[in-house]
What does this fold into?
Amino acid sequence: MTVTPASFPFDNTFARSLDGFFVPWLPERVPAPAMVKLNHALATELGLDAGALDSPEGAAIFAGNQVPEGATPLAQAYAGHQFGGFSPQLGDGRALLLGELIDVFGQRRDLALKGSGRTPFSRGGDGKAALGPVLREYLMGEAMHALGIPTTRVLAAVTTGEQANREGLPPGAVLARVAASHIRVGTFQYFAARGDTDKLRQLADYTIARHDPAAAQADNPYLALLVGTSQRQAALIAQWMAVGFIHGVMNTDNMTLSGETIDYGPCAFMNQYDPSTVFSSIDHHGRYAYGNQPPIAQWNLARLAEALLPLVDADRDKAVAAVTKVLHSFPVLYEQRWLALMRQKLGLEAAQEDDLTLVNDFLALLQAQGVDFSQAFRGLGEDVDSRAHARNLFIDLAAFDAWTSRWHRRLAKEVATPGSRAGAMQQVNPVYIPRNHKVEEALAAAVERRDFAPFEQLLTVLSQPFSTRVEWAEYAQPATPAQALGYQTFCGT
It folds into this structure.
């Protein structure tokens, strides 16, 4: 089914089912909306007419000037722990949920605007967005999607014809974000903080129906919801770690119950392997450093567990015991997911007892010699026998050779042929990731010169992360020391 820009086939269960969980609100009009980029593939996936939407009328919709038929614009309420400190009321301060669409796969997806103006939750902010952060979210979402990592995605990026009230007065912009839902740990915290058990139950039942339908048949559906969320987060964080992704702002309002990556403000990809890597300018103490992401995920899940306690059992002690068991299982669950991915990255299929040691020793070797994370794993898969691609990255060749000798002895226990093994490794070890310096180059060209060619080229490269192309060689290279020195990312709010 295709539709015109003015008519989206919305089916808005959140608005119908959860009165009191949001404030109905309209986006602010902007003076001159213009389409920068429409995601044609995603539009088609949503059953929309990409050709019709890639137009002035589509730009007006995604800028907020025209509310499409069937939409119910609303600002969602939620709370959240931000860098460990609890804020009982956050909410959509510059975002509006337009409605829900059923995609061509039968999956329900939210369509929301971000940067569409002030709402009752803006807390002094202007509710707007600038072009740079909007394009960053587009790039990162599509890169993660191509890497096979669950993520929100941008359907459209539009400029508004006004300047954002940010340093340098960059062009104002709005993005249209698609998500499995925008239900967060912080959404549960909002009602838990108010002691509203009825609304907690209502929210939990809705979330179960949308993301964990099997949990409805469990002996304890609300505990099953925690288990399902824990499983999804373990899988998600393991995927982040396997590609060197650093989210940068893992607050509880940025952890979804669906298990998708959301909010690409200060995110970045790691170059040289170092678990302490931090890029976010506001993460002064490394709370959300690369290596801290698994325990932070567990910490966030503990906050969800606290909110669910009155639903899990009327006896608080029994409820605490039940959720504690789930939380304590998270590190093991995460390690299983992560180790399975790392085995794939090393060309290993069957599990062996010493695999964890083999993986950790390789990571320690990367850290000790300052080797690029992505290049090292890709190099191993480029020539499993000669090892030349990876070997050239190391300074202490004796240490590398000693480890690869162990690795080859481990590979000898596998049944796969070297050719098939190399092919499999190349399908899980990307040659192209969003290198920070290339992202910044593309954003600077777009914002400062309105030259979108670097953005389009980078988007094309990132859509094919596992296929080596000679003409894309520069996109596989890490930043030079001068480019990497002092590099920081910003929330973009």
